[in-house]
Write the structure tokens for this entry.
Amino acid sequence: KDGKTLVGGHEGVALDCEFCGDCLAVCPVGAITSRFSKYAYKPWQLKKTQTTCTYCSDGCEMTLETEGSKALRVTSRLSYLNKFGLEVEPGDQHGGLCVRGRFGFQFVNSEKRLSRPLAKINGKQVEVPWFKMIPQIARKLTEIKNQYGGNAIAGLISGRCTNEDVYLFQKMMRTILGTNNIDTAARYGHINSVLAMQYALGVGSSTTSYKQITLSDVILLVGSNITETNPVASLRIKEAKNRFGAKVIVADLIETNMMKLSTHPLLVSFASQALLLQGMMKAIIENKWVYQPFVDRYPKAYEALCQSILPLSQEEIAQKSGVAWEKISEAAQLLAQSRGGTLIWGEGIVSEPGGWDNLLALIDLALLCGLLEKSGAGIHPVCEENNEQGAVDMGGVCEFLPGQVPYADGKERFEAIWNKPLPDSVGLSLPKIIEKGLRGEIKALYIVGENPLETLPESMRVRDAFEKIDLIICQDPFLTQTGKSADFVLPATTFAEKEGTFTNMEGSIRRVRKALDPIGEARTDFKIFSDLLRQMGGDVYRSPEEITLEIDTCVKGYYRGERLQGNPAHLGHYLGNGFAEEVLKRYAKTGQAGGGSGAASSAPAIQLVLGQSIYHSGKLSTQDEGLMKIYNKQTLRISEADAAALELKDNDWVRVKSDQGKVELAITILPSLTKGIVWFPEHFATLKDLMNVQVDPKTDVPYFKSGHVSIQKVPLFDLSVVSQSPSSFLPPQVREDKDEGDGAHNLPSPLEGEG
Ligand code: SF4
């Protein structure tokens, strides 16, 4: 009679897990239930729609279960019948999802969704019906084109839009509005991978597959906190190690989850990842572990690499990179002598200053190891947003037409396909659009699903540029900061209300299926573009399937999973034309600077790094009540050593200062952080305005994910702390410069960390 029932972790120990919720899927008796969906449905009443997750580029399949106009739960193929996914082929999806995919569906039902179009009248945004809105926008865009020419118009589209949306958008911008000023979220980093791979190999996408990754005998992961950014892809690496015995080498600035699990962890000093790659190449050359067919085929290029890479001493590389030479050499030998090795990289090396050079170093390493030729080997970039790769493949950037065809090379061909002249200009990337906007040379900006005001730091002067642009159109499911400053706001739908496809990082095409009708008067991106095209005299499509068919004719084989083909002679051109001078300069820079991303030797005391958390993806997930309940930790993560030096303990407040301003916020001590690095989740805009921006001279990628700051403890009597209402999930745990004096402070949310 004294028996007690207690629900909790085994032996009362709190769960230390990623909250992927796969336990829900495999629990055979329903003992584990999602609190988000509890009592909200009767399973047999739910409509089930097979679709694709909208968060990251892993592109997991999911079943979105809906009732009426609401999404009520997400399930996946993983079940107790397929426990742990062990029956599936290696590398196939085991059917599970991560926390974002399984629990981050509530933004679809959000009351903050836009349901009616808004137009700015006398400085105020007011509701205007669609039948007035579309003709007005079409008229204004046409007037601007006629008065200033197409070059005065620019467009920006999200890497979360479907392939069909991006294709239609770029076609409208190029053929109807006469502009090639088009960009997408890939500009924040992934375009470095695409352009460098294009430049060297002739095609900019992964050369391998998830299955090959799982079957790799050696995996080198550089600058990617893959467990957080691409959780299901990270399972493939774990499977490669645990099930097939692969050696996993992880090089990063921070001791990531994957580094802890790896066989060969390489914790590198700040801005030294490129130097580490140079060290690995040096070890490969000195020890003659080079892939011999490469030397035989390109002897001059090999000679040039030797001359560029060898001068730096082993001691210097080890000292600057912070990794012992023996460890560098061991990792190099493993990769070079691998049967089918895989090189994977992520935003930690792509979105840092010198990203372009870093990418070329990765490609050089892959060439020396034969990763582009050995059967089962390959190279694989990972990017954040679900369809960044597809957006580039569909011509959503100024450099490429659909199929990653360089604009100048494909202009005539596409003029013939589309039966319309295309602009002569090479077009502008996002940083150049902003630059020209500041000079008053951009008159209209059409933004689809992007939010540059909240993404880019103030030093990029996006707001100033917006003030000089006559017409800003913002199409988004939510009223973002960018939307608030727009002249026209068009309510768009989420992925749950759309048909189309996404392209994941492996190059697989994933179907997006409509599970719900659009809320209120919201329209799909496809429908809005079609309505505008009808008004402006463009091609009219009745459904996204018609666009799919058109894409299929101009990017042959794309939907059948055939990879985009580069010119096979491309590598020879890369390794021939000026390669010797180019590598000599490039590696001399790396050697001096301790990496393309800045001087390790002169690295400042504290580097602020903005990075991704497993619980969020871009800004979209911050619109999701479920994910915000799980994770809304807006504290500065600091290493134990730095905390001790500053006499800080958890939840103490600090003032973070850069030459752009200062912000006060609470800290959390994170033992896995390296001394000299502080970390903050990039999904929250709190610290981004402290960052300076450097734009890559080759690829126009704006680098702002890391920067020099100073940190000072804020004495308690300096703070006016007020407790936070337990019902609030949005603790502004910060006091910004401007609020000084009256800023209310909130203690960490009592719900933080709940799963
Ligand atoms: Fe979605 Fe990526 Fe998570 Fe898969 S790994 S469920 S695609 S966020």
Observations:
- The two ends are 32 Å apart (CA to CA).
